[in-house]
């Protein structure tokens, strides 16, 4: 929202989003979803560096369960941000960056914290995951590093954590039970 106001307030102001100082000014009030979307840009622009104050501040925000709950961030949104950020380059354009380890770790923790934003249905669930080789290629929602295999496994983790009555199976050439616990 703040980022949207910034760019809407000054036509052509997007040219300044390549400046670390601009991101430094935006960071304290950046909403969680905008933070997730712009981690790569902030790192590529030099704001987030390993063991920097900004990397620490971002890690603290990303691991704040209350902030994640209030922002209603879905686990797949966090997983997409994690996969993209860890990869060090986007799917479109030429932006590349050196991921900061503490931000990668914070995103991993945020993924599990975001499970609390998924409401249990109280129903019985039987998930059958395609674990064949074909599930390792392609992208989900155009997110780099988020293959159908990774996304289905992530949703199985969420189901196992949120739904008390579930069975998870995998199939390729035959069906087998997969033990995924909360």
Description:
The structure is a single chain. This protein is mainly alpha-helical and 182 residues long. It contains 8 helices and 3 strands. The chain has helices at residues 2-9, 20-26, 32-44, 53-62, 65-71, 75-87, 101-113, 148-162, and strands at residues 125-130, 166-171, 175-177. It has a 3-stranded mixed β-sheet with strand order 1-2-3, with helices on one face. Helix 3 runs parallel beside helix 6 (75-87) and helix 6 packs antiparallel against helix 7. Mean pLDDT is 88; it is low at 5-9.
What is the topology, as strand order, of the major beta sheet? 1-2-3
- In percent, how helical is the residue content? 40-55%
Order of secondary-structure elements: HHHHHHHEHEE
Beginning-to-end CA distance, first to last residue: 34 Å
What is the structure about, briefly put?
With 182 residues, the protein is mainly α.
Keywords for this structure?
182 residues; mainly alpha
What's the layout of helices and strands?
Blueprint: H1 2-9, H2 20-26, H3 32-44, H4 53-62, H5 65-71, H6 75-87, H7 101-113, E1 125-130, H8 148-162, E2 166-171, E3 175-177
Parallel strand pairs: 1-2
Antiparallel strand pairs: 2-3
Helix pairs in contact: 3-6, 4-7, 6-7
